[in-house]
Each structure stands twice: as structure tokens, then as C-alpha cells.
Amino acid sequence: MILMTQRPEMSKSFYITERGDYTSITKIVSVKLPVGLIDALDELIQRGYFQNRSDAIREAIRKLLTNYRELDSQKISSGLMIGLR
Questions:
Q1: CA-to-CA separations, 26 to 20, 22, 78, in angstroms, rounded
Q2: What phi and psi, each to the nearest 5 degrees, are found at residue 65?
Q3: Closest by alpha carbon to 55, among 64, 65, 44, 66?
Q4: How far apart are CA 56 and CA 59, in angstroms?
Q5: DSSP 48
Q6: What sign has the CA pseudo-torsion 21, 50, 15, 1?
Q7: Which one of 14, 36, 45, 63 is separated from 80 by 20 to 30 angstroms, measured CA to CA?
Q8: What is the pTM (predicted TM-score) of this model?
Q9: Distances from the Cα of 61 to the Cα of 1, 15, 36, 54, 65, angstroms
Q10: First CA to last CA across the chain, in angstroms?
Q11: DSSP 52
């Protein structure tokens, strides 16, 4: 069972989601997206790739962060190869 609650000490934009042994704190954010992106996102949801827009956007952000972390690692590695610190 998934239980979403709010704690009085947290603002209304924060939620605590409990799924058995997994608990996460989420915050609501608003973004403006072009209609074409939303339509493409909804198509992926209809095809069953994601349960909803939030799941798809979270996955996209995770991939974006991973790409930048890898890019940073490559910069550090290449700097070490040429003797930079």
C-alpha cells in the first residue's frame, strides 16, 4: 500500500511517500513545457513506458544528472591524464 502524508513542520509542497520498507520525501514543483513535449510524453505513457508524467519526468532528470556526472568525471580524468589538478 502506498501512503502519502504531509507533516505539519514541512511546507505544503512536501510529501512523504511510504511504500512498505521504502520511504521518500518529494516536493511539488511547477514547470512550463511546450505542448509538443507534453504530447510526446503522454504518448510514452500511453505505450506503457511510464505510469504517469511525474514518473517520466523523474526518469528524465535522473538521466540528465547521470550524463552531467559522467561528463564531470571525464573532465577530471582527462585533466589527470595531462597532469592538471
A1: 16, 13, 36
A2: -65, -40
A3: 44
A4: 5
A5: T
A6: negative
A7: 63
A8: 0.67
A9: 26, 19, 18, 11, 6
A10: 50
A11: S
Locate 46 and state its grid cell. Answer: 500511453
- Return the domain boundaries, the chain: 1-30, 31-85
- Residue that has been written with the C-alpha cell 510529501 in this structure: 15
Report whether 56 contacts 47 (CB < 8 A): no
Which grid coordinates belong to 12?
505544503
Q: Quick one: pLDDT at residue 51?
A: 96
Taking 70 as the pLDDT cut, the residues of the chain under it are 1-11, 78-85
Place of cell 518529494: 26
- Please state, for a pLDDT cut of 70, what percent of the chain lies above it: 78
Quote the pLDDT of residue 2.
54
Give the H or E element holding residue 15.
strand 14-19
